[in-house]
Amino acid sequence: MEPVGAILFRWRKRQKLTGLQLGKRVGMSQAKISRLETGAVAAEPGDVRLLAEALGVPPGEAELAIELAEHAGERLIEWVPAGRDQAERQREIGRAEAAAKEIRILQPAVVPGLLQTSEYARAVLSAHEGRAATGSNDAAVTEAVIARQERNRILHSPAREFHFLITEQVLRVGVGGPAVMISQIDRMREVAGFPNVRLSVITDEAELPIPIYHGFFVADDRWVSVDLFTALLRATGRTIVRDYRELFDQLESAARSDIDDLLDHYQARYVGALQPKSVAR
């Protein structure tokens, strides 16, 4: 099935108009026309109707595209594509987070980005690059770490509410080594004390209403994203966002929010790992 953006592009080319010319006709910027055509943003049915009228598209053809736009939001589509450098990926996520008032993040594998220390972020992003952060690669990772830390400022906005949900495995897997994990747990403890933050842990013993297949991010009731190794997928449809929101709430109800002793346990384990081993005589 032809994507909505490709249809819009074909309509414009048929009329031999530039993006700038079409934008002036309908009161949109050239940048928005480009984003709609490339699929960087989902085309709203109203946008499709407006463009169809401006381009003189036959009613039957226009209605098919409008219907496609109405249902497109119910599918997860690529948001930040593979190949985008990691710093730009972080900035794109940060722009989306800045527009949200209520954020829910489930992460079963690593500490959520908004909670990461710079050392932990470097370990994650370096591993994502697939090789040690040295030479030119080190510069790229450093830029991505800085961009990720910039995202963390949003936590200090009292007008926003954050729900973080991790599995106990996130605490158990020592990303970056013991010293990095000790600092990371301190950071998680600090942020968990913010009045606008709820951090919960799904323990190994928790009885889950449904298996956790992957992590995801729900922003308000407007969109959901799924973080893959090479790309981010996003959907804006009302039904799929509602389903992910309900799933998050179910999993959060099975998790622990009184986590101080759990954090103490794993922090003590990492402290112990740094102690010199006694030599038997």
From TrEMBL:
<dbReference type="InterPro" id="IPR043917">
    <property type="entry name" value="DUF5753"/>
</dbReference>
<protein>
    <submittedName>
        <fullName>Helix-turn-helix protein</fullName>
    </submittedName>
</protein>
<dbReference type="InterPro" id="IPR010982">
    <property type="entry name" value="Lambda_DNA-bd_dom_sf"/>
</dbReference>
<dbReference type="GO" id="GO:0003677">
    <property type="term" value="F:DNA binding"/>
</dbReference>
<dbReference type="Pfam" id="PF13560">
    <property type="entry name" value="HTH_31"/>
</dbReference>
<dbReference type="Pfam" id="PF19054">
    <property type="entry name" value="DUF5753"/>
</dbReference>
<feature type="domain" description="HTH cro/C1-type">
    <location>
        <begin position="10"/>
        <end position="62"/>
    </location>
</feature>
<dbReference type="InterPro" id="IPR001387">
    <property type="entry name" value="Cro/C1-type_HTH"/>
</dbReference>
